[in-house]
Design goal:
The chain is an alpha+beta fold and 158 residues long. It is 25% helix and 29% strand. Strands 2-1-10-5-6-7-3-4 form an 8-stranded mixed beta sheet. The protein has a two-stranded antiparallel sheet with strand order 8-9. The longest helix is centred in the middle third of the chain and has 15 residues, at 54-68.
């Protein structure tokens, strides 16, 4: 059984292994999969670039944490931030967000899920609740961080 830690409002929840086959597009426009993170401990977060609430704060905090890591630790770890708004979060918008918040994109990937309905399926599997967006484009969501162990990424091809 693969266990992930989800830090939600100070609590810790365990979830079982699930399907990691969602296709990703990074802020550089590259096609990725969760398999690309195999072998590294990965901090998985969710964000959207138009967020006027907690996303920018979380990004700045993670950038500060990232700066404190040694080069050796950076080589064994990654941060993967998945967009909650893949229609609006283009690679260019994600790059701008990353730069604005001090992310070192050598070890921090901003990406959107490109497959139909796969974002909602992933959110359901990791128990991340996301509401509808309002007229200003603000999405009702909780800040969630998942710590994924280096062997937790399942190959997407069986």
């Amino acid at each position: 059984m693969i266990v992930l830690l989800s830090v939600l409002c100070g609590g810790v929840a365990q979830v079982n292994a699930y399907d990691w086959s969602a296709p990703l597009e990074s802020s550089t426009g590259a096609s990725l999969s969760f398999d690309d993170f195999a072998g590294r401990t990965t901090l998985l977060s969710f964000f959207f670039t138009r967020c006027q609430g907690a996303c920018p704060q979380q990004a700045r905090l993670l950038a500060r944490v990232q700066r404190e890591l040694t080069d050796e630790v950076k080589m064994r770890t990654a941060i993967l931030s998945i967009s909650l708004d893949p229609k609006h979060d283009t690679p260019a918008a994600m790059r701008t967000f990353a730069e604005a918040h001090g992310a070192d994109t050598r070890h921090w990937t901003f990406a959107r899920i490109t497959g139909p309905d796969t974002l909602q399926r992933l959110l359901d599997q990791v128990s991340v609740k996301v509401g509808a967006s309002d007229v200003r484009g603000q999405i009702d969501h909780r800040m969630t961080l998942l710590l994924v162990g280096p062997t937790a990424w399942w190959p997407s091809a069986t």
